[in-house]
Amino acid sequence: MTQEQARNYMNVQFAALSENESFARVVVGAFVSRLDPTLDELNDLKTVVSEAVTNCIIHGYDSDPSGIVYISAVIEGETVHLVIEDKGKGIDDLELAQQPLYTSKPELERSGMGFTIMENFMDEFEVVSEPGQGTSIRMKKTIVSKKALYN
Question: What PANTHER family does the annotation carry (predicted)?
Answer without folding.
Answer: ANTI-SIGMA-F FACTOR RSBW, ANTI-SIGMA-F FACTOR RSBW-RELATED
